Amino acid sequence: MAENLFDLTGQLALITGASRGLGQYFGRALARAGADLIITSRKKADLAPFVTEIEALGRKAHPLELDVRDHESILTMSAAAEQIGQVHILVNNAGCNVRKPAVDVTWDDYNLILETNLRGSFFVAQQIAKQMIPHRYGRIVNIGSVTSVFGFAGLAPYTASRGGIRQLTMSLADEWGRDGITVNCLAPGWFQTAQNKVLYENQEWVDYLVDRIPLKRPGEPHDLDGAVVFLASEASRYITGQTLLVDGGISTGATRATVQLASKS
């Protein structure tokens, strides 16, 4: 057994959706723990600055083009990844969202979200698992959301996709556990990203949100570092099929049953 259960030295991690946002934070955390990276984006050129950043940390970063809505693109990326080396870790991060009242969601809106977040995650996991199975080792981290377990108005297709990720995680964990592969879901709460930046410009909404979070602040990207390294490492070797919520406690329900009392100092 490794002396440091969180050490990823000598491992290769594949991260989808790594041209911006949380995907890059996941990549930095894994690189600092010792992993080399394969990073993907729909446009390979968008990955160039991040490659430079990871190399400055002393790790390798291999950029690959990937559109998770295109099956041929997934197959091409998977074949290229296999040529780079044995993939030990997959972080299934690529995703999108469309915020609309349910009555205004279009057929195309729904397809975009489900095809990206749920179907894409499955077929990427499928192809990378095929490479992991002969080695009898793998760590798959599907990125879900607090909406994997909690409903929010205006996010109907998104919550459907993230709820599906949680169920998919459990099914794949059961199927691939015999092959030495763990499959878990990392579910962030409310974090400011490129997708939702406009929300955080509304101070009234931010105050409302913070009031519902027991830790009294939205998430900061580094709050996810420990969780992704944990699920990618030997420290989580007997954990599979689980959803790890990193949400400041908002999934407790955050609805008061009594008058809020000031904390005593």
UniProtKB/TrEMBL annotation:
Transmembrane spans: none
Classification via Pfam families: adh_short_C2 (PF13561)
Xref: Gene3D superfamilies: NAD(P)-binding Rossmann-like Domain
One MF term in the entry's GO annotations: gluconate 5-dehydrogenase activity
InterPro entries xrefs: NAD(P)-bd_dom_sf (IPR036291), SDR_fam (IPR002347)
SUPFAM superfamilies, per the entry: NAD(P)-binding Rossmann-fold domains (SSF51735)
EC number: 1.1.1.69
Annotated keywords: Oxidoreductase
A GO biological process held by the record: fatty acid elongation
Family: Belongs to the short-chain dehydrogenases/reductases (SDR) family.
Protein name (record): Gluconate 5-dehydrogenase
Organism, as annotated: Granulicella aggregans
